[in-house]
Amino acid sequence: MIKGSDIVFDIIYAHPQTEEIFHSWDTEKSCILCEQLFEPLESVAEQIDMSVYEMLDIIMEKIKSTGYNADIKG
Amino acid sequence: MNKIVDARGLSCPQPVVLTKKAMDEGGYDSLITIVDRTAALENVSKLAEKQGYQVAVEEKGGEFHISMSRDESLMDVDISMHREVAVLITSRWFGQGEEELGKVLMKSFLYTLSEMTGQLSHIVFMNSAVFLTTEGSEVKEILTAIAEDGVEILSCGTCLDFYNLKDKLAVGEITNMFTAMDIIAGASRNITI
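Above: the input entities. Below: the structure tokens describing the complete assembly.
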């Protein structure tokens, strides 16, 4: 289960299919996977003004729909 | 033997992912990742430091060669936290009042506990709280994650019997009053709801 205290990199490393979700939350001036890669999810949520619970729901939904054992992208 | 990860032309998080994969594979004395973007340089260096590597960076014509080698002095650092908090839950709903609100609060309480598992040692479920640890529980997933983090989840056997739930236990183990009270009384801090 993903938690709000989990680090973004740990999430995308274990579940590479979630990478596109983080890209979808990028803004014109900021890139989560460049600038906040080692921050906890709850900190990212605060910075992009989004509920961490909503974030967790979206991430978990993506993981469940694509399977837990997706390969890590090379 | 040196292992080289060529991550030129790749944007984050790929240089970091490739470096972590190389770290996980092992079999080298020194690991060198080559990147050509400053964000990748910063993130790969950060990863290496977090993983206990010593980092040296050399710039060569706009490219950064990040050399990483294990810092043995950091390898055996015990980062485990002392587990000292035991939690006793005595109802399937949090507090008294409306059932619907009690359900929401219980879910939120357990979710919050899941964020502090480094400090938790046990969660003991008594009376109707055993509905939370058995099949059909809405919080089974949260409790499973807590258990996977090393927290002991214990349900009162008498209570499971009373509610005909003994063969439906989904998370943790069965306990008795003596053991449960020993755990709660022996914890440095405890929470009862």
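Note for the figure: Chain A has one domain: 8-66.
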